[in-house]
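DM between two lab members

TW: hey, do you still have the DUF4328 domain-containing protein entry open?
JB: yeah, one sec
JB: this one, 126 aa:
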Amino acid sequence: MCAFADEIWPEGQRRHRAWLLFGWFVPVAQVFVPKMFMNDLWAAAQPVERRCRGHPLLTAWWLAVLAAGQWADGFSLLKRATASTARDALHHLALSEILYVGMAALTLAVVRRIDRMRNGWGARAG
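TW: and the structure you got?
JB:
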């Protein structure tokens, strides 16, 4: 999809492609670089007259990714749980699973929406 964004709107891409990988691992950058790429991809997929970065769906998706990442230690809490803390650990695990399901649903919605916009470009070009 980045090749698509580079082809359609090369001047709209704010970061070099190497940041696609580095953006997930560089400590501070991992909070904003992946979302920045998605915003750029979203904007590139829009018709020129409606092109803008960001969308509430992208923001909801990214907040779900961050929230799920914060609660990702549910299993490790459950392994260390004692009889008195097992209930809290199970609640933590249930919340993390709910967040992961929400994140997966939003990821699917974002990918399908961008794919529809991308396919619209093929129809406009052909």
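TW: got it. The chain has six helices and no strands. Helices lie at 2-8, 19-25, 33-45, 56-70, 74-80, 86-125.
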